[in-house]
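Study this fold:
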Amino acid sequence: MLERSLGRKFGLIVVGAFFALFVTACGGGQEESQGNAPEKTGQESGTSATEDTMASGGASEETTSAMEETTKADGAYDANAKVGPEEITNMTPADSKEPDDPQPLPENPPEGVKTFPATTNETVDGKIDYARRPPTNGDHAKLWQNCGFYSEPIDDRTAVHSMDHGVVWISYSPDLPAGQVEKLRPYGDEDYVIVSPYPGLQAPVVVTAWRNQLQLDGVDDPRLRQFVDQFRNSELAPLSGNRCIDGVGEPE
């Protein structure tokens, strides 16, 4: 009987110990599950990462847009260019008559034409620092340059004012052969055209209209004629059609 009793007690102790180990094991499982809570935080971080990716995508679009603007600023031709919001467009011609009708920008300009960004076109006193030489647009002198042919350089500030009126400015290198200079002279007899020498040109001939410019290797390049015809009195010039008479300068 004593041996049987001891055997029963021993069996109960073994069962109790096994049960205690089982409970401990279950508790440990719960703690491990709680230990997975940071993984949930990680998932929340994943959501943030998605939002960051979306934000990054937006930044990428802005960067692309900035690159496109830079490309335009560097001179890609833009047939869809418009008068800038800061440009003045409501000045009456000096002769008080109605402006001449402008023409739209060409869809098929001469190869190599570059379009530059709009700025302002206010009349100011004193020196003006232009971004390019010859300048393509910007603030300018109060009076414009009369159209025609000049054998001496003219003032950038008055020439820019004329281009604001829709004028095409043909500038040529001072060392251009006399025979080629004479071929340019007839352009000065046309409406809305100025011809003048320009020191420091990067090409023998540079032809400029408001915000558009083309460099040429010589006067015989057919693109010169095309540019003058297509960009004269362009609608991109804020005061296009305001003519270029009764200003300053005495063309030959």
